[in-house]
Amino acid sequence: MDTRAAMQPTFRVLDAAARPASVDIVIPVLNEERALPGCVRTLVAFLDGGFPLPWRITIVDNGSTDATWPVATALAGEYDRVHARRIDVRGRGAALRAAWRESQADIVAYMDVDLSTDLGALFPLVAAVASGHSEIAIGTRLGRGARIRRSVRREVISRGYNALLRHGFRAGFSDAQCGFKAARARVVRPLMDKVEDDGWFFDTELLLLAEHNGLRVHEVPVDWVEDLDSRVQLVRTAVDDLRGLARVAWAMAAGRARVPVVRPELVPCHPDALPASPRRARSREERSRAGRLQGGRLQGGWSRAGHSQGGRSRGGWPPGGVFAGSVHVLFSAVLYAMVYWPMRDFQEPATAATCALVLAGTAGAVLSFRTALFFAVNLALTVALLHTLPPQAGRMAEVGVVVAAYCLLMVIRAATSPLTRN
User: Fold this and answer.
1) Cα torsion at 253, 257, 258, 260 (round to 10°)?
2) CA 23/CA 28 separation, integer angstroms
3) d(CA 84, CA 94)
4) What are the C-alpha distances in Å from 255 to residues 230, 258, 297?
5) CA distance 217 to 128
6) Using one digit for the tens of pLDDT, what is the confidence trace for 74-122?
7) CA angle 336, 338, 340 (to 5 degrees)
8) CA nearest neighbour of 173 among 131, 126, 141
9) Does an H or E element contain 98, and which?
10) Catalytic residue from among 106, 203, 240, 272
11) Is the pTM of this model over 0.70?
12) Which of 19, 77, 147, 263 is the one with CA 20 to 30 A from 237?
């Protein structure tokens, strides 16, 4: 087979003017000569068995050194709606970026070559995007109704990582890295211009930017079985993810994560409806006040309900909320330590403390003056305490010092927080 011809992009989809939404399913592969044939044949059989939308499968070989590319080109020659292309850059994100950019389909999707996710969730995943309801749809292994079978190690890492996203970035999705996603092509391309990662963090960065720009992310609970023949290096991937989260947090704080997104205006379905007037644009003062309120909730502040129940004296803990506040501080401290420990493997203490502070809860409110002040005081106190440690002090003592400084300021901030009025 002519490999050069196989590398050229070919689009075997129907004319856009006479078809429903088309779907391009991308399978990124790296040294997968064993798994690829079974994956493609199983997927083709499933799609031919009644998938209701026009579809194409795109295999993207991103730097394989085994026989993956000859296998991919052979499969492309065997099936009319299977396309193969090759790139020299390694990384799942690089493969998805290359395939999604050039695809002429309305909906771009991807799944892992091991087919760990049951294919029964594919149409519910795509339908949420094809209907126009959501811009992105993801499979979730952690949502209600999902069924999974995997090792305890991966379960703990996955839940801890997604807890970090929810706590630090206020993420609304429950599973960032399940290899089972779909998106509206014309919406996801501007987001990819802002995504910097070409590896495993690509998914997380894309989803964080999508929510940051007001896009709707739909979740589909999936059945998922871990394949032990995986290319994921958990420790290295976890460290790379922490670096990426710190970078995304700073990008959001600096205003570099905004993407111009055009969404249709809300209109009533009933022809005789009397719709409410559109909300007026909030003033700068109102936006600033909302930002300060959000910052207070994210960093040591308590919820509106917690403040309003039973009143509160000046400068005190909310009545009945001491236990909840203690749990909040404890959870934040543990999360802070979990982030700081691996960051110290490749950063100086001050830099590691900065990244840990951002990821442990300030990412969503870093533009708040109150949060920025907390950030600066925490960093100064942490650096000062670290300088008091003797040279022979170990990593555990160092982590204890930075966590103690963090907890101290969290408690002071909560105890002196002014009443949040309705």
Assistant:
1) 180
2) 16
3) 15
4) 37, 6, 21
5) 9
6) 999 999 999 999 999 899 999 999 999 999 999 999 999 999 999 999 9
7) 65
8) 141
9) helix 92-102
10) 203
11) no
12) 147
